[in-house]
Amino acid sequence: MISTVKRVKKVQRRHRRHPAVFPSSLLDMDRRRAGSIHGMLMIFAEFFGYSSPFAGGVGGPRGSSSLFGDNIYGSIGGGGSTRGTRFWGSLFGDDIFGSMHQGLPRKVAPAENKLLCSLEELYKGTTKKIKISREIAHISGKTMQTEEILTINVRHGWKKGTKITFAGKGNKQPNFTPVDLVFIIDEKQHNVFTRDGNDLIVTQKVTLVATLYGLTVHLTTLDGRNLTVPINNVIHPYYEEVVSTEGMSIQRDPSKRGNLIIKFDIKFPTRLATEQKSGIKKLLGPWH
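The line above is the sequence of Chaperone DnaJ C-terminal domain-containing protein; the predicted structure tokens follow.
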């Protein structure tokens, strides 16, 4: 910068002495050149705090300072020299990088709801339609309420605890991602059967006489069939009759099913007459 000013002054002196040799156009050219350089240096001084962009280079008067301050990365992150911060702040605002992080929507925990299904529905599969109402809040403070019908295809063999997720179908708040809706399968209590994994369990009430003479169990299956199960063995309190492939549908393989387990609740008499005791003793013999 100093050498440029000296050059202009030198040309001015020569122009005054010899106007024909040093025309004013040459003087104007040097003035414009000096002005443009001066303008550039003023810009550097504004952004970086010193006029020369290379003043802070290795061996320069400012030691180890770099073009964008002591540490360009520290300046971006908020630490280090403030020169880089002034530079980026002048171009994009006071805190461009902080604003970028603040602008990212935050994740919200999903909203979970139970979806009750009967054993018949889980045995055969079904389609459920659920009407939902959601609120969408805007930055302005206005809230809009919308309604939608969701369709859930319940597959045969689904178990309690199975989750179905509808991404972004919940409420929406400013600066947050829309809430995910999660439906969790739950089983309704059945009048006849209880479920244990892929097996179905039924408890049949029987009399003491039936346990000795045998009986036939009649059931209506979950798909509406009439099932007849003859019991030919002597029934004791811990006896279970297992009927294969009459249990729940298995999701992985539609052709397979679990077992049907029949348990027995034996009704013992509260008292016996003398004649009844004698008859039982005679019937059973001495083996007891």
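Note on the example: The chain has three domains: 2-102, 111-187, 194-287. The helical segments are 2-17, 24-48, 72-77, 83-92, 96-103, 119-124, 208-213, 274-284.
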